[in-house]
Amino acid sequence: MEITSILETITVIGFLIFVWYESMTMQKIVYKVPGVWSLSIKRIGRKKQFWLRRDMASELSLQPGIYRVGTGRLNDIRVYGCKSEVNLYLDINEQELLLTVLKGEVEIGGIVLNADASIQKHISKDTTIFIDGMRIDLKKEKI
Amino acid sequence: MLEKLVYFISSFSLFFWTIFSNKKTLEESIAYLNAITILLAVEFVVSIICEEKKNQKKRQVIYIMLFLLNVGAAVSYCASNCKVFANDLIYLILTFVGVYLLTCYTDWYQSKNLGFIAMLAAPLALIGALFGEPVNGAHIKVFGILILPLVVLLYQTAICWFLKGRSRGYLGGKVGSLSSKNIGFLCYTMFLFLLIAMCNEFNLLILIALLGTAFFWYKIPDLKIRMAYIGLCLGTAFWACKSVSHIRARLEVWLDLSKAVTDENLVGKTESITYFLKNIQRSGWWGIGPGSLSVIFKTTCDTDHALTRVFYDYGILMGILVVAAAVLLIKWMTTIRTLDTMEEFWTLGSIIVTGTILLLHIGSNTGGFISAGVSLPLASRGLCLNAMFVSYIAVELGFIEKGEKRNVQKKRKTSRIY
After folding, report:
1. Cross-chain residue pair B321–A12, CB shorter than 8 Å
2. Backbone angles phi, psi at A96, to 5 degrees
3. Minimal Cα distance from A15: which residue of B?
4. How far out from the chain centre does Cα A43 lie?
């Protein structure tokens, strides 16, 4: 067997092991950044499905940026448990949070915003909004 | 430990395999040895700095990068260009360290002012290229720098200006609709398309179209408007492709490969696309041997046709491994999530650009896509493009470093709320 054939075999097998090892040990890592707003959702009332009897609550820390909140799959923050389709658009920056309703109805402090609202709701302090029985608390985080 | 050992043995056996099978001048062999020594020195330094388990992620990408550069050195040696490659390596290492430190200690990618400057610089670079000498009918350089990596990086930096800050108004008064900034971005992108089409730079056109599409997908909440916007962006890019003769000729050959050798107007321009199909059987799993590639690609056999060289000289197995390593590099980029808007957008841009260039290279080397004339990431000779890839990796590593500093590393709670 020629020396080049041996080197060829060593190279290919060596790189094969290298690629295999790297692909096997590669893991996903998330580096969170401090949020400026936090969003927590609490469902009020009982759920019809037997496997959803408990109240659900979850909290997210949001960084500056744009989030689509809604019931559909393509949203950044997917809300489960609503009967009707609701889509919100949250534009978050350090000072305030801009809320726009794209679909459905949202209640903020007794005022109902619907999909036709072409104005953005400016929120600069802790606020609670209601979407179809879901309670969402928006709080400003201390950085 | 395993990756270190395997990398060490494989890179040396690749070196001796290439040297023994393909004897070149002493100067060229010394340049190849220099390149391998530099790469092993980097490996040695990395193995010391990133020894701990928590640094495995950083170590992984550097090893993949070194593996691809190793193949690049071998390919350049076969093409008698290893001296240039070895010189480039020093600049690549300097670029890598510079960008890494800059990303670790500054927030340059968050700067709106820098984004604004980049926004102005991108069209100026393209206009400057139009005054330069064309290479194979395309204006691809400005002041000796390739416009593809330059404009791509400027465009990505410019996105910050459009992504951050408030829009002054919305089309039709609806917030879900197009904002003034989005309309500005679309007009800006279309203006760039026009300039790129004038420069005949097909690859850049594709990259900008895809980066723009990603931006629109991210920025616009309404699905219908989003799709219309993306359609307009990609449609304009396609129109630009069709209207440029240099690109149209390649499209024609892609749609009918036989034209590459039968059409009088196209012979000599695009026949490289059929080379792989004609010669792959001769090559086999183990290749014909380093340095055996025909002289048909005299100037591009270590750049635009690097994969053809690997397939032909080193065999299909080695070719698959090189492609797998490049895919791993992209996969590595996808495994980093930092949850910061600009950091996420830079990561997305790195994935799109590296992935598209890899696909274009594979496609144009195997006849699967039009003859695009683009390098294989890190495994081709070419300082400008490799500097871009190295910068992407350095930026990602900088994001990891910042993420670790924030000390909030934990498994992602996806943004879904149950």
Report:
1. yes
2. -145, 175
3. B10
4. 17
pLDDT for A48-78, tens place per residue? 444 544 455 567 777 776 777 877 766 677 7
Q: Which of B2, B14, B403 sits opposite A21 (nearest CB)?
A: B2
How many inter-chain contacts (A to B, CB under 8 Å) are there? 169
Q: What is the pLDDT of residues B347-376, one digit of tens each?
A: 888 999 999 999 888 887 776 666 667 888
Whether chain A has a CB inside 8 Å of the CB on B1: the answer is no
Q: What is the pLDDT of residues A91-134, one digit of tens each?
A: 777 778 888 887 788 888 777 877 765 566 777 788 888 877 77
pLDDT confidence of residue B413: 42
- 69-108 of B, contacting A, C-beta below 8 A: none
B403: closest CA of chain A, how far (Å): 5
pLDDT tens for B272-282 read: 666 666 667 77
Per-residue tokens: B231: 């359609």
Q: What is the helix (H) or strand (E) element at residue A78, kind and residue range?
A: strand A77-78
Please tell me the distance in Å from B81's CA to the nearest CA on chain A.
22
Q: What's the pTM?
A: 0.79
Residue B43 tokens read as 């490996």
Q: How many angstroms from the chain centroid is the CA of residue B386? A: 7
Judged by a CB distance cut-off of 8 A, whether residue B53 touches chain A is no
- Residue B332 with chain A: CB contacts under 8 Å: 26
**Range B405-414 average pLDDT:** 51
Q: Are B199 and B147 in contact (CB under 8 A)?
A: yes
Residue A3 DSSP one-character state = H
Contacts of A17 in chain B (CB under 8 A): 2, 6
Q: Over the stretch B182-212, which tens digit does the pLDDT of each residue have?
A: 788 888 888 888 888 888 777 888 888 888 8
